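Appendix B, Record 12. Input sequence as logged:
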Amino acid sequence: MADRFRVTYATLSADNEDLHTAYEDGADRARAWLGQRLTPVVDGTARPGVDPAELVSPGDVTLKLATVTAATDQDVDAAVTAAHAAAPGWAATPWPDRVAVLRRAADLISDRSNEYAALMSMEVGKNRLEALGDVEESADLIRYYCDMYDKHHGFDQPMATIAANESTRSVLKPYGVWAVISPFNFPMALTAGPAGAALVAGNTLVLKPSLQGTFSAWKFFECLIDAGLPTGVAHFLPGGDDPGRALVAHPGVGGLTFTGSYETGMSIIRAFTGAYPRPVICEMGGKNAAIVSARADLDRAVSGVARSAFGFSGQKCSACSRVYVARELHDEFVARLAERAESLVVGDPLARDTYLGPVIDAAAVRRYGEAVAHAATVGRVVTGGQVLAGVDGRPDGYYLAPAVVADVPSDDDLFQRELFVPFVAVSPVDSVDEGLDRANSVPLGLTAGFFSTDQGEIDHFLDRIEAGVVYVNRPAGATTGAWPGVQPFGGWKGSGSTGKAGGGPYYLQQFLREQSQTVVAS
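Logged structural output:
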C-alpha cells in the first residue's frame, strides 16, 4: 500500500506541503474522470437507467461532473433477485476470505485517497482536509469491522453443556440481501461503513447513494470490484428517491441501512416491516447542543463550537447548531465566536486556504436565508447572513457566510429544527442544569458538547445528557469529529433506531442474526 497521510476530523491541522502536493496531483487525476455516465450496475452489467440528470458541482454550477441515470423498478427488482441468488455462496465463503477481500478494498481506498478526496470536493463541496478525512474514514470503517470479525473469531461461540453427549454453539449468520441508502454529506464514509459491515458479515449488497454523492459512491463501488468481490455480491442503483422507495418496499431485502433526515428515516422504519420484522438501521440527524459553563475555558469553547458549527458548512448531522452559555460569559462568548466566524475563508473547496466550501444546493441557500431573516425578526444576527456566490472572485456556487445569531427566544424553532447550513444560535442560561434541560428538550439526540474545568460539572453532564456521542472540553470539535474505533457514532431518541453506533464494538452484530445449534452425539 502506498504511503499516505492520516487525516481525521480531530486532526485537521495536520497540514504540510507534501499533503497539499499529493491532493493537488489527485485533483488532476480526478478532473480526468469528469463527464462520465454513471448508470445502474446489476449482476456486473451496466444498465441504461432512465431520466438522465446532470451532476454539477455545488462550488461551481457551470462544472459538469457526470450524467447519472436512475435505476428503474425493474432494475431494483433485478438487483435484489441477483443479490438473493448470490447470497448463499457469499455467506458460505469462509469468513477470513471475506475479510481479506474487504481489507483489500480498504487499502485501495487509501491508495486512491487524494483523487477521491478531490472528486468529493468537487461533488459535494468539502474542503480538502474534510474530504481527505471522509475518504480515510471510509477505509478505516471497513478495517474496523474486519478487525471485529477477527476479534470474535467469526462470531462462532461455544456454549455451556447440559448433557454429556451434546454440544451447543451460538453462531451469527447473515440475513441475505442488505440495502444501503446513503447520504450526500459523507458520500463515501456513510456508504462504505454500512456496506462494508454488511458484506464482511456475509450479506450481499444493494447500494442506493444520494444523487449528489453518486460519483463518490461509484468510486467506492469500483474498489469493491477491484478488490475481487464476486459478481452478484454487490449492485449499484443510482437515482433520486424512486429507487430508494422501491428498495424499502421490496420483500426480498433482508435488512436495510438508511442515513438521512428524521422524517424520512421514521417513514422507512414504519414501512419496512413486511410479513415479519426486518432489521432497519436508521441514523437520522441531530440538533446538537454545546453547553458552556461559567467555569469553561473560553478559548477551547469558541474553537470547539466554531469547528463544529461551520465545518463542512454546517452540513454534518453532528454539527453544533445551538449553544447554551452561562449568562456571565454569554456576551464575550458571542463576540469571540462571531470574530472567529468572520475569520474563516469561504470559497472554492479545492483551494488550499478554504475552510467553508459551498452548501449542497439552492434549497439549502433558501433554508439559510429564511433562518437568517427569522433570526433578525425575533433576535439579532451578530454576523453572517450573506449569500456569497460570485462575490470576491468566488465561482458561481452555493456559498454562504457563517452566521451567528443571539437574543432569540429559547423556545424558538431555530433551537428545534435541523437546518444543515452554517448557522448557530446562542442563548444564555443561568445554570448547567438549565443548559442540560434545554439540550435534552428536542426529539433528536445525536451529539453534544460541554465545556467546564469543574469535574463535578463534567460528571453531572455525562450523567444527564441525552445523546449518543458526547465530548467534553474539545477544541477540535465541540460536537463533531468521531473516528472508527475511537468514538462510536450513533444517536439516541429520534437520531438513531437501534442504539448501536457505527465504528463501535456493537455495530457489526446488527447485520447478523443468531442461531443456537445443539448437536447430540449419535
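The two ends are 51 Å apart (CA to CA).
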